[in-house]
Amino acid sequence: MKCLVTGATGFIGRDLCQRLTLEGHSVTALSRTGSALPDGTPTEALDLAHELPGVDRLRGIDAVFHLAGIAHQQAPATAYRTVNEQATVALARRCAEAGVGRFVYVSSVKAMGPASTDTRREESDCQPPVEPYGESKWRAECALRETFRDAAMQVVILRPALVYGLEPKGNLALLARGVRRGLPRPPAGGGRSLVALEDLVEAMLLVSRLAMPGVPTFIVADPRPYSTRALYDQLRLAAGKGTGRAWLPRPLWRLAAAVLDRLGGQRGDSTWHKLFGTELYSAAALTRATGWQPRVSFGQLAPRMLEPRTAAEQGS
Fold it and tell me: Which helix (H) or strand (E) holds 194?
């Protein structure tokens, strides 16, 4: 299979390219800067905010995995619209024009907007997104569904929950660092859906192989809920430290979260909600359609998350 991957040097793209190569597929890797993959494989520089690959460049491609996008919460709203929405739809149209067989778009559960309850959400349980990132993903999804529902090119939309891997990101990275430095045990409460990077890549490969009508949209999430305390306990166990002491009162945790919001110019979910809110998702539809099942748990990767990472491993 001839594949093209956008955002190839990103957190997800690196693992996807490696897996495709190991399986013997031909991979064209695109990245904004043209930097190399961790194994030294070069990528082609293409900034989708300003240009698209030519039709001739896309001819003969069997599957496009579209990962490129802006996720940083402090980006201008116009940047989200340009890259996450407009460039996504324009690229899909260009791919269809070139005769690409399958277009896999990695969206986000943030496209579903804020949860109205604490129950596990399915694909149709959507609210209007309240921040630019989620809105741009939602608008891209809507345009893809409208444009390609009866098209020859199969379009599949995946909405991963929070993705984790050997190189923790965001609050998971802060939590891992805190465990190393003696952070007190967080208070109980809340729960979030996660998905291991390896399991997300497996889902992407599955949907690239199966014929499905319309423009199917699937959540990708581990059915196990993870609270901040549970993640902390797993990291402590992996570090050989045993259970930590919960000596910091809940009000001080809330105060610290508010300070982080103020210092970071918070947009979207508050730090308190990210750490102690409830945000659960169901991947039952994906399992029914493809047989996908998560195989990796947080506890399995926790020991290696605490190991120092080399520049090569980090894709620097």
Answer: strand 191-196
Q: What amino acid is encoded at 20 in this protein? A: L
Contacts of 297 (CB under 8 A, 6+ apart): 196, 222, 224
Q: In the beta sheet, which residues pair with residue 27? A: 3
Q: Is the pTM of this model over 0.70?
A: yes
Are 194 and 221 contacting, i.e. CB atoms less than 8 angstroms apart?
Answer: yes
Structure tokens belonging to residue 221: 């999430």
Q: Are 229 and 186 in contact (CB under 8 A)?
A: yes
Q: Which domains does the chain have, with CATH numbers?
A: 2-164+196-227+280-296 (3.40.50.720)
Distance CA 106, CA 217 (A): 10
Tens digits of pLDDT across the chain (316 residues): 999 999 999 999 999 999 999 999 999 999 999 999 998 999 999 999 999 999 999 999 999 999 999 987 678 889 999 999 999 999 999 999 999 999 999 999 999 999 888 899 999 999 999 899 999 999 999 999 999 999 999 999 999 999 999 988 888 998 999 999 999 999 999 999 999 999 999 999 999 999 998 999 999 999 999 999 999 999 999 999 988 999 999 999 999 989 988 886 666 678 888 889 999 999 999 999 999 999 999 999 999 988 765 444 444 3
φ, ψ for residue 100, nearest 5 deg: -60, 140
Contacts (Cβ under 8 Å, ≥6 apart) of 180? 239, 306
**226 pairs with which residues across the strands?**
192
